[in-house]
Amino acid sequence: MVTFDLMTEGGHEQLVFWNDPEFGYRGIIAIHDTTLGPALGGTRFWDYECDRDATIDALRLSRGMTFKAAVTGLNLGGGKSVIWGDNRTTDREMIFRAHGRAVESLDGRYITAEDVGTSPDDMDYVAMETEHVVGLHGRSGDPSPVTAYGVYQGIKASAAFRYGDDSLADRHVAVQGLGSVGYHLCEDLAAEGARLSVTDIDQASVERVVEEFGATAVDPDTIYNVDADIFAPCALGAVVNDDTLERFTVDIIAGAANNILARSAVHGPALLERDIVYAPDYVINAGGLINVYGEILGWTAERAKAKAGEIYHTLLRIFELAATEGSDTNAAATRLAEERLGRVRHLHRTW
After folding, report:
1. What is the sign of the dihedral through the CA atoms of 68, 74, 77 and 79?
2. Domains along the chain?
3. Structure confidence at residue 139 as a pLDDT band (50, 70, 90)
4. CB neighbour burial string for 273-283, b if at least 16 within 10 angstroms, e if fewer
5. How far is it between the farthest Cα atoms of the chain?
6. Which of 41, 163, 299, 340 is deepest in the core (most CB within 10 A)?
7. Which among 80, 156, 305, 307 is annotated as catalytic?
8. Distances (CA, A) of 106 to 38, 41, 349
9. pTM for this entry
């Protein structure tokens, strides 16, 4: 693995490896860019195939966090950490206390939070070793409802741009992934009268959404072929790829998953060519970051939710910029983020 080549390619500042074999802790912290402030990004606990996969995931996710903060107008840099291991383990305290020590070693350059495979309970263990952690019990807590609300508002903005009307009543939405964010998104969509087709590898999650919101269940592989208005991917990334691209019949792709495009330089333009409106993932799913940013600044829950609602207007700006320039929306969002980073970079660099 050519580590420095990977870091140079993505423009990363720092990569930290931390190992504590006594407790089964293998952690990687990636800091992408601290122009806007300390790097903030959650901790993902995942059983990767190898250390290269874990490293690439940390680098990729941290870069996305930089752009997410920049385009959303937050004074934060981009970072991410991954723990390589089985996230189903119940013996978690020492793993996460070891992770807390790794975070503490960076002296505030990186702030962590929960992510895939982790929870506020895990962050409480991290907090035993460092103060550089957010999303704790009794503070901002679970960011899923705010993330889902931001995605919901992003879907409405996408509908407004595509249809000239942001109402989702009777719109058919195919939701992939019914974890915490996917569940709350279905709740918001159903409340407005959207028709839902849903899937998840966890059958109990599917049954819950079918029972509570009147959704129609479909097989995981069938979700790409559903004749819906909107596809909302809320599981893992790379679901828009060479294999799925020709299967979509939707008008809009807008969901909570990270890195929805398998290859952004290829699949962003491909969606434009197919006349599918794409809401860039790191913009539409920024509600979770906004939620923990609000914890740092002492915001109320209502203020954090209102800030997440501004994703609606941010996406409309991106859609209009892309239409004016004739570019895909992912490229337009990246330009907006890089423009803000460039302006601030000339002012100061404090972290």
Report:
1. negative
2. 3-65+79-126 (3.40.50.10860), 144-338 (3.40.50.720)
3. confident
4. eeebbbbbbbb
5. 58
6. 41
7. 80
8. 10, 14, 17
9. 0.89
